Amino acid sequence: MVPLQEGVANMQFSSRAGFIYLMLALVVFALLCNWWLGRSRFGAYLQAVRDNEDAARAAGVNPFRVKLYAMGLSAAFMGAAGAFYVQVFQYIDPAIAFGPHTSVEALVGAIVGGMGTLWGPVLGAVALHALADVTRNLFGALPGINMVIYGTLLVLIVMFAPRGLAGLWTRTKER
Question: Which of 53, 73, 82, 84 has the CA that lies 20 to 30 A from 94?
Answer without folding.
Answer: 73
